[in-house]
Amino acid sequence: MSAARKRVAVVGVGTMGSQAAWRLAARGAEVVAYDRFAPGHDRSAAGGETRIFRSAHFEDSRYVPLLQHADTLWEQLEQETGRELRRLSGCLLMGSTEHQQMATVLQSIAEHGLDHEVLDAEAMAKRFPQYRLEDGDAAVLDRRAGFIHPELTVQTAARRAERLGARIHRYTPVREIVPVANGVEIRTDAGSEHFDTAVVTVGPWVKDLLPELPWEVDIRRLISAWYVPTTDAWFGEERPAFIRTTPTHCYGLPSPDGVSVKLGLSRALHKPAGDPNALDRTVQPEELEIFTELIRRHMPDLHPDPTRLAVYMEGYTESSRPLVGPLPGADNVVLLAGFSGHGFKLSPAFGDIAADLALEGRTPQPIDFISTHSRTAA
Ligand SMILES: Cc1cc2nc3c(=O)[nH]c(=O)nc-3n(C[C@H](O)[C@H](O)[C@H](O)COP(=O)(O)OP(=O)(O)OC[C@H]3O[C@@H](n4cnc5c(N)ncnc54)[C@H](O)[C@@H]3O)c2cc1C
């Protein structure tokens, strides 16, 4: 059967599903997508107005080629839709050079010739006085970096997919995915539909929908907290996002509205989310203590009373590497899961890879290190 005539289901139209639907529809597949809510909602992994895009990777430099592929597709989606989804205002990476993550950043910059600046304490004090560096810290400005609008991106990719012929069933949770001899059946409360292939991108619901999944995906509850600066330093001409790798891994973004700065923490500091259908969205005062301490130590011009708090969910694998590829024993079901807090920037690339796998059964992208084929069961 030719790629153009393949029927592909996309289960979950969030970060990855909206991009997969776009890439599949762009290649002429017949796409039917399902979401338990509607594209652009804030009840899962993709809310809170901003996500960091960067080209230097501190987790693993093998992501860099995928980031470059994503970069091209970000531009393509913006051009096709006329929407500004990303703003390349830079990202400052700060932390001890003794720590492995800063070493990986410097390694990926050197290996891939990335556009960057290393800033010493004097340059930091002049250009970015809002940050307090510690002895032994390095500061690197990744210039091909900035922020993405997550809700706008999901809606824009989903709408682009619809323009190209995809159908999206909103408020339609998929209850079961059943591999059958000549494809796969998607079961919802409305009935059952047959497809050649299914792409499954249900984020924090992955264990709910696929209880037999042979890998552990730990669903965590992430707090975003917005603080208002007491000086003008955050909203000058340069407005980079930042990531601090040590001593407490955290990140932040000046809000696009020019009023507040959003802060977030890393994996070790997130509580388990529990049932994704019953996420506790209330932030207790004691959960803010760590933010207050970070502000006191590293960003003293932020007023420590948050003006806004929000809670999201994300799935983490043990290695923090996502699971991308066919489900064991079900070649017609392509899984994308466990993005471990760093999937958004890469999402157009993952959508494209999902389309490769669903339509061709293989991808030219270097995904061995994240492929389900290369993973042993937990
Ligand atoms: C607070 C926070 C900050 C982050 N910051 C960054 C960052 O700065 N940079 C970065 O690159 N990444 C970041 N990430 C990570 C990134 O946002 C995630 O990796 C990414 O959004 C995960 O995408 P997903 O498609 O797996 O999940 P989602 O975007 O949550 O999509 C899953 C979709 O599946 C739907 N669904 C679930 N079950 C079903 C079902 N049974 N049937 C139909 N539909 C279903 C849901 O409604 C949802 O729309 C952050 C994550 C969080 C939570």
What's the structural blueprint in terms of helices and strands?
Elements: E1 7-11, H1 15-26, E2 30-34, E3 51-53, H2 64-81, E4 86-87, E5 91-96, H3 100-112, E6 116-119, H4 121-127, E7 137-142, E8 146-148, H5 150-163, E9 167-169, E10 174-180, E11 183-188, E12 191-195, E13 197-200, H6 206-209, E14 218-227, E15 241-244, E16 250-254, E17 261-265, E18 271-272, H7 289-298, E19 308-316, E20 323-327, E21 330-337, H8 347-360
Parallel strand pairs: 1-2, 1-13, 2-9, 5-15, 13-21
Antiparallel strand pairs: 3-8, 4-8, 5-7, 6-7, 10-11, 11-12, 14-17, 14-18, 14-19, 15-16, 16-17, 20-21
Helix pairs in contact: 1-5, 1-8, 2-8
Bound molecules: flavin-adenine dinucleotide.
Flavin-adenine dinucleotide (FAD) binds next to helix 1, strand 3, strand 14 and strand 19.
